[in-house]
Request: fold
Amino acid sequence: MRAAVEMLHFLVWGPWTLGLFLGVGAWFTVRSGFFQFCGIRCWWKETVGSLWGGGEKERQRIGHGGITRFQSACTALAATIGTGNIVGVATALTAGGPGALFWMWVSAAIGMMTAYAETCLGQVYRYRRQDGEWMCGPMVYMDRGLGCPAIGTVYALLAVLSSLGMGSMVQSNSISGTLQFGAGISPLVSAIAATALTGMVILGGIRRISRVSERLMPVSAGIYVMFSLVVILSCWEQVPAILGNVFREAFRFQSVGGGVSGFLLSRSVRYGLSRGVFSNEAGLGSLAVLHGAAENTTPEQQGMWAMFEVFFDTVVVCTLTALVILCVGGGQTGMDGAALTAFCFSARLGAMGEILVSGAMVVFAFATIIAWYYLGRQSFGYLLERLGRGWKRQWGDLYFLCYLLAVFIGCVSRLEIVWLISDLWNGLMAYPNLLAIVWLSGKVRFPSTIALDKCRGNEYTKDNKRE
Reply:
């Protein structure tokens, strides 16, 4: 069975898939006039620059089932900043060499515009359910934009399966494994604690999830960034040579053995791009769901927040992890994954370094669990609508219990096959989503047209009510 799953995994995540990600991102990059580069002052001001002042007034204006723009951004960051920033980066460098970091940057730069497009479309086509909560995501713009509810149903089903696999079981398994090897805590104790904490948070719906994410992500990510900089600055004299090596290895061609050099190049490209996509999730459609509940905003503003999230996740956090590994370990320690990252931090920070990596793994994984619950719950609600059931509390309770059960099982089980299958669902989510955003690209307005549209009085209101 494992061989068959691995074959399917290769077919779904093969080079053609990465080419599709790059092609769609490049399409929106050109259409936007390379906005992620030329408009950096604009999207930075609309995101990080908008955090100072007015926050409390915005909280007072949000309605039932809605959250603030900053809360939606933190919830999306909770889903994207996870174990991929620690384990995925180490794996990419071990398998693809230093050049993989360059291709992670490429995936982020291009993925920023993919994230913008899908998040913008999510805002364009979202609508309120009968209970007052927003329904948003790729399944909605596939239904209302493409007029293909069948494709939306397939996407929603894949998203539910991914939430129970990659979003809960795999993440909780990382928590229990980290606590067992780092602190000697048994998987059963970890399972009880993780399940209880998850239940306490997700029971409050998107409002409580966003409030927890709002407090958890800035602090945890800030601490991780700070200690990463401490390690990098302690090896500052090595950084110029390391960066030079990153660029050389990214385009490495040897005069002898063209086949070998091509293989080396393909490994750097493949691992860099794939781990970049795995980390920031641009193109999977998850960001469109997680931004759906934001109030007092526009599609353009939420699109720019999605751009910032991809930038921060990959260009900032993943780059810092990679530089720590390259500065201290040099990729020659014989280790991989979290063990390699922990070794590099502890080599400079002592026992505190290992504690830092273990703590980051636990916090990032828990944040991913609570954020993916909302994504899965939204997708599950859409499936119920398609079945003509509507959203009722007992159905929500069913998904709630299934999700908690997945968290518990993930802590106490070995999940090699589950990991592969969950990653398979994730990859399959990308195909209908990328098709949809390309087909609906005419509905995506880029920030360069905002001023003109405001003068004309155009608003995204006609699509916000379900006919």
Observations:
- The chain has 21 helices and two strands.
- The longest strand covers residues 127-128.
- The two ends are 46 Å apart (CA to CA).
- Residues 54-61, 253-267, 451-467 have pLDDT under 50 and may be disordered.
